[in-house]
Amino acid sequence: MSLLCVDDLYVDLPGGVGPVRVLDGVSFDLPAGGALGLVGESGCGKSMTALAVMGLLPEGAKANGRIRLNGHDLLGLPDATLCTIRGRRMAMVFQEPMTALNPVQTIGRQVAEAPRRHLGLSRAAAEERARHLLDRVGLPTMRFPPDLYPHQLSGGQRQRVGIAIALSCDPVLLIADEPTTALDVTIQAQILDLITELSLETGMALLLISHDLGVIAQTTDRMAVMYAGRIAETGPTAAVFGHMAHPYTRALFAAMPQAAETGARLSAIPGQVPAPGRTVPGCHFADRCRHAGQRCRDAPPPALTAVDPDHVVACHFPQARDTVP
Amino acid sequence: MAPFLLQRSAGLLATLLVASAVIFLVLEVLPGDPALVMLGINADSDTLQALRAEMGLDRPLLERYADWLIDLVQGHLGTSVTYDVPVSDLIGERIAVSLPLALLAILLSTAIAIPVGVVAAAHHGRLLDTTVMGVAQLGVAVPNFWLAILLILVFSVGLRWLPAGGFAGWDAGVGPAMLSLLLPAISLALPQAAILARVTRSSVLEVLREDYVRSARAKGLSQGQALWHHALRNALIPVVTILGLQFSFLLAGTIIIENVFYLPGLGRLLFQAIAQRDLIVVKALVLILAAAVVVVNFLVDLSYALLDPRLRPGVRHG
Q1: Is residue B223 domain-resident?
Q2: N or C: which end of chain B has fewer CB within 10 A?
C-alpha cells in the first residue's frame, strides 16, 4: 500500500464570480521511502496540491476527493486532528527561506518547537535535539549557535534551518515545494543533495515540487507532469525521460536551457497557461500544442492511459518513443 | 547594546536641550514683558521692577537661559508667584496624582486594546469582528471629556459606586486613592484603546498573511497558537509606535480630565498656572511634559529593539 495516495482530488478556490477550479481530478501514489517529483509551469497546481495534502489550503478553498496517508483519509479531518499529523507525520519545506522563518525567534527555538509539541520533549531535550538537527543539516553549533536569528543567516543557511524544522520529528513524508528556486545556483545543488541524502538516510518519502526538470531528474524516482490542474503524464522518472509521451512534457524539456545546443535560441512554449476557472470543452493544452487536432479541441483528454507499463499519459495523440521532439 | 544606548541617550539629551530653548524663547521673549504679563497692566511700577529683578529680566537673554538651565539641572525650578512655594514642591505634590493616572490609563488602554484587536483579527470578517470594530469606531469618535461626564453620571450619580471627583490622597491608602483615579483613567483610556485596538487588528491581520505563520501551521500549530506564538510579537511594532504617539495626547487629555474630576494633578496645575499667568510654573511644567514625551519616545525606540532582533545592533553571521 502506498504511503501517500491522492485520489481524484478537486480543489476550488473562491473567486470573483464564483469558485475557481485549481485542481481537476489529480491522482498519484507515493510509496513509503519513494521520491515523487511534481513538475509543471507556474500556476499549474503543484503548490496547491502540496497545500491540499498538508491541509493548509487558503481560507475558503473547497477540496474534494481523497488524500490518504497510511490509508487514513486526511480530507475532512478536523483541524485539531490535522495539527497532530502536520509537523509530526508529514512536514514541509517552503520555497522562500527568507520569509518562511519567524524573524523574531531564534533558529534553535524554531527547530525545537515541533519536537516539544509532538514528541513531548522537555525544553532542554528539545534544545539538544535542535542542536543535533542543525548539525545534521550542515549548521554546526560551533559556527551557528542556536541563538542566532534568521536575519543573521544567508538564504541557503536559512533553507537548511527550514529542512531541520521539517525533519525535527522524523516525518514519514517530506513535501519540498521548490526548495531551491529562491537560492543561488551554487547553493541549489547542495540543498538538493542534502534533501536526497536525508530522505535516503531516514527512509522518509519525498514529494518534490519543481518547475525544473533537471532537479526532478536528479532527485526523484517517479514523476508527474502537471498542466492546468491536471496530471498530464506520470511514470518512473527514467521512463518518462526516456519516452516523453505528452507533447507538454516534450515542450517543457525543450524549454530547458540545458537541453538547447550551445548558441541556439531557447525554445519557448507558445501562449500561456489558461487562466484558472476558464473552462474549455477540450484539452487545456490544445491551444499551445503543435500536435493538436480537432478532437483535442472538442473532447476532453482521455483518462490516463498506459503507453508503457506503469507509465501513463492523458493525451489523444501520445507521442511515440522514437519521435524527435 | 551599550553603544546603541549611549547613542540614543545622547539623542534624548539633545532633544531635551532644543525643547528647553524653544520653551524658554516662547515664554520669555515672544509675549513682551513677562513681569507685566504676570502682574497685569495695573501693576504698581515698584512691584514690577522687583519682579523683573527677581526674574533676572534686566540681564542678557543668553545669560538668563544659561542660568535657567543650570538651575534646572540642580533641581531649582524657581518659586511660584501665586502659591509662593518652590515650583519643585508644587510639581512633586501634583505628579503623585498625574503619574499614577497616566500609568493607569495606559495600562487600561493596552490591556483592553491588544486582546480586543487580536480577537477581532482572529475572527476576521465574522460577526464578532464587525461588532467589536463598530464599537471601536464609536470609541474613536467620543471625546474623552464627554465620556468622563457620562461616566460620572452613571457610576457616581446613578450607581454611587465611585467618587465623582476629587482625590482621596495617598495618605488615605492605596485603595481609596486608586478608586478616585479609576473613572478619570477610564475616560482617558477608552478613546485611546479604540484606536489602539484598530491598529492591533490590522497589524495582526497583515502578519497572519506572512509565510512564517504558514510555516508554524505546517509544524502542527493551530491557527490560534500560530497567532499567539508567532504573529503577535511581529504585529506589536506598529502598536507600540501608536502607543508612544498616544502618550502626548494622553498628557493633553489629563489637562482636561483633571479639571473635569477636580484632581490636583499636573494638568490642573498647568491650567491654573496659565489662568493666573504664573509663567515660572508654566515654564517648568511645559518642560516637564516635553521631557515626558521625549522619554516615552526613547522607551518606544528601546522596545523596538526588544521586540525585533533585526533592529538591534549586531553583526551579520552568514
Answers
A1: yes
A2: N
Is there a contact between A11 and A61 (Cβ–Cβ < 8 Å)? Answer: yes
A287 burial (CB, 10 Å; 0-12 / 13-18 / 19+) is middle
Question: Do B10 and B58 belong together in one domain?
Answer: yes
Q: What is the pLDDT of residues A114-125, one digit of tens each?
A: 999 999 999 999
SS3 A30: strand
- Within 8 A of A103 by CB-CB distance, chain B residues are 212, 234, 308-310
Q: What's the rounded Cα separation, in Å, for the pair B185 and B265?
A: 13
Q: Is the pLDDT of residue B318 over 50?
A: no
Nearest to B226 by CA among A176, A160, A113, A94: A113
Contacting residues of B for A99, CB less than 8 Å apart: 210-212
pLDDT tens-digit map of B79-123:
887 788 888 888 888 888 899 999 999 999 999 999 999 999 999
- Does any CB of chain A come closer than 8 Å to the CB of residue B47? no
Helical axes B266-275 vs B87-122, angle rounded to 10°: 130
Buried b (16+ CB within 10 A) or exposed e, B206-232: ebbebbbbbbbbbbbbeeebbbebbbb
Whether B233 sits inside 8 A of A104 (CB atoms) is yes
Residues of B in contact with A83 (CB under 8 A): 220-222
Residues 46-75 of chain A whose Cβ lies under 8 A from any Cβ of chain B? 54, 56
A45 Cβ under 8 Å from any chain B Cβ: no
Q: What is the pLDDT of residues A189-245, one digit of tens each?
A: 888 888 888 888 888 999 999 988 888 998 899 999 998 888 889 999 998 888 888
pLDDT of B254 strictly over 50 = yes
My answer on whether B230 and B189 are in the same domain is: yes
Which residue range is the domain that position B275 belongs to?
94-311
Question: Is the CB of residue A144 less than 8 Å away from at least one CB of chain B?
Answer: yes
Q: How far apart are CA A264 and CA A39, in angstroms?
A: 25
Cell, residue B232: 503577535
Domains contained in chain B, number? 2
Q: How does DSSP assign B55-91, residue by residue? A: HTTTS-HHHHHHHHHHHHHTT---B-TTT-SBHHHHH
Please state, in angstroms and rounded to a whole number, the distance separating the CA atoms of residues B95 and B103: 12
Please answer yes or no on whether B318 and A151 come within 8 Å at the CB atom.
no
CB atoms within 10 A of CB B254: 27
Which of B44, B73, B102 corresponds to the end of one domain? B73
Q: What is the ipTM of this complex?
A: 0.87
Dihedral sign computed on CA atoms, order B266, B267, B268, B273? positive
What pLDDT score was predicted for residue B144?
85
Minimal CA–CA distance to B57: which of B93, B27, B87, B21? B27
Contact: B210, A99; criterion CB under 8 Å: yes
Regarding whether B141 and B175 lie in a shared domain, the answer is yes
